[in-house]
């Protein structure tokens, strides 16, 4: 006797669910959504205080996954989903103002998050000035790896560049930041 399809999907790995998506298995999409939507929404909410934009970004993430389940089997499915979600959020936030400006406009004055407070302090310090002196390419790598906490591979995916380029740009950024802060 075979388990019901819901039980089969609930016990499937994320990789198995993505493989099932390639066969247009809607149940696999539903299971992937149930597993990953809560943490994606929570993590995106830390970067955007507008729940409507966060909801749209999460929905767009899973629509993109349904249309093109292009995970290559490298790394974690969750990291792949995060890359799609953060790009979707950035798309909804255009035109891009600084992170602090966007978050400040979207939140009540008394609802400043710890992340916003730290970013504001960094932006108005010597470190902020040093970061702003970096080229946009170097600043994007620092943003993705340091501020967003992405791995080299995730940052490469997010920025659309090879992992080696992320590493070399990060090395150059560290060197330029060190010089600027001396």
From TrEMBL:
Gene Ontology terms for molecular function: DNA binding; sigma factor activity
Pfam families: Sigma70_r2 (PF04542), Sigma70_r4_2 (PF08281)
Transmembrane segments: none
GO biological process entries: DNA-templated transcription initiation
Annotated ranges, domain RNA polymerase sigma factor 70 region 4 type: 127-177
Gene3D superfamilies found in the cross-reference section: 1.10.1740.10, Winged helix-like DNA-binding domain superfamily/Winged helix DNA-binding domain
Keywords annotated in UniProt: Sigma factor, Transcription, Transcription regulation
Domain RNA polymerase sigma-70 region, first and last residues per copy: 32-94
NCBIfam families the record matches: sigma70-ECF
PANTHER family (alphabetical): RNA POLYMERASE ECF-TYPE SIGMA FACTO, RNA POLYMERASE SIGMA-70 FACTOR ECF SUBFAMILY
Family that this chain belongs to: Belongs to the sigma-70 factor family. ECF subfamily.
Protein name as it appears in the record: RNA polymerase sigma factor
Annotated source species: Nocardioides guangzhouensis
